[in-house]
Amino acid sequence: MTVTLPETDAVDDVIDDTEAADRAPAGLTASWPARAGAFAVDVFFGIGVVITCLLVAQSASISGLGWLRWTAIALAGVAFLAVALNRLLLPTITGWTLGRSLAGIAVVSRDGAPVGPWRLLLRDLAHLLDTAAVFVGWLWPLWDSRGRTFADLIVRTEVRRVEGERPDRRRLAGGVLVALAVVASVATLLGYFGVYRPELAVEQARQQLAVQGPKIVEQMLTYNLASADGDFSRARELVTDGYRPKLVDDQDHARKLGLADTEYWVVNSSVLTNTRDRAEMLMFMQGQRGEAPNLRLISATVQVKFERAGDHWKVADFSVLARPGGPK
Asked: 207, 283 in Cβ contact below 8 A?
C-alpha cells in the first residue's frame, strides 16, 4: 500500500493558515487597560451603586423601615436596568457601549461581525468563570494571542480596537457617572439618616441610661429622717408627671408607718429594652433602714420604666418583682 504525502508547499500553507486563525488581525486586539477602563465605566460603577442600595435595603429591613427598604430596592433596580441596557441593548443599536465608545473598542465575533444581545448576555454570564478561577480569566488577555478572556473563548468573541471615527460620548459618560454618584450618595445619606443615625441614638441612649438609671433610682428611694421633706421633694423631680401621683402616695404611706433613715444602692442592673426616648431596666438593689440596734437590711429586685426628658431620664414606672427582704 502506497501513501501519498501532500507536497511540502501545501503543508506549509495549511500550517500558516492555522497560525493565522489563532491571531487577531494585526494591531486590532484591544489592550487590557482599554478593556479594564471600559468595564469600569459600563459595569463597575453601576454595580457599585446596586450593591450600595441593596446594603441600605437590608439595613432598613432589619430596622423595620419599609419605606426606606423599597426606595433603596427601587434605586438598585433602576441602576441595574441601566447597566443591562447599556451592556446588552445599546451595542446592537449603536455598535457601542458607553465605556467601549470612550475606549474605542468593540466586542465582535471571530470574523469581525457584530454580536447580538443574547450572545452578549451569555458572554457576561460566562464572565463568572473568569471570576471563579481566582480572577485568572480576567488576566488571560495579557498573554492570549487574540486577547481573549475565558468568556470570549466560550462564546467565540473578541475585543478589538475600532479604527476611524467614533461617537464622542465624553459628556454623556461624565453625566452618567455624576448621576451614579448622586444615586449612591442619596442611598448612603438615606441609610445614614434613616438607619445608622437612629440606631446610633438608641445605642447612645442605652449607654447613657446604664449609667444614669441606677443613680436616679437610688436618689428616688434614699432619704434621711432629718431632711425627709427635701428628699421627698427631690425624688418627685426625678419622675415623670404621670408617675408622680403614685410616688406621692408611696411617700405619704411611708410617713404614716413612721419614717427612718433609708438608703438604697443598686448592686446589679441591666437595660432590658430601649428606644431613643423610652426604656426598661431590671435592677437588684440592697439597702438599709433605721439605726443600730434596730438597723434593717433590705434587698429587692425591681423593674423600672424610664422616659427621656431632654438630656436626662426620669422614672415612668416602678415595679417590685421580689419583695424587699432581709434580717428583721
From this structure: no
Task: With residue 283 as reference, give the H or E element that holds it.
Answer: strand 278-289
Judge whether 101 and 176 are in contact, CB under 8 Å: no
302 and 223, same domain (yes or no):
yes
- The reply to whether 146 and 215 lie within a common domain is no
In this structure, what DSSP letter does residue 142 have? Answer: G
What range defines the domain where residue 125 resides? 28-168
pLDDT digits (tens, 9 = 90+) for 233-254: 999 999 999 999 999 999 999 8
Give 182-216 pLDDT, tens digit per residue. 999 999 998 888 888 888 999 999 999 999 999 99
Residue 177, in any domain of the structure: no
- Give me the DSSP letters along 160-211: EE--S-----HHHHHHHHHHHHHHHHHHHHHHIIIIIHHHHHHHHHHHHHHH
The type of residue at 104 is: G
Beta-sheet pairing, 157-161 with 262-274:
unpaired
> Which run of H or of E encompasses 263?
strand 262-274
Using a CB cutoff of 8 Å and minimum separation of 24, what contacts does 167-174 make?
Answer: 167/94, 167/96, 167/101, 169/96, 169/98, 169/101, 169/102, 170/102, 172/98, 173/41, 173/98, 173/99, 173/102
Asked if residue 319 is part of any domain, the answer here is: yes
Report the number of distinct structural domains present in the chain.
2
Kindly state whether residues 157 and 246 are assigned to the same domain: no
Residue 191 lies in a domain: no
Is the pLDDT at 269 greater than 80? The verdict is: yes
CATH of the domain at 267: 3.10.450.50
Q: What is the mean pLDDT of residues 245-265?
A: 91
Cβ neighbours, 10 Å, residue 13: 12
Same domain, 231 and 122: no
Shortest CA distance to 74 belongs to which of 91, 59, 57, 87? 57
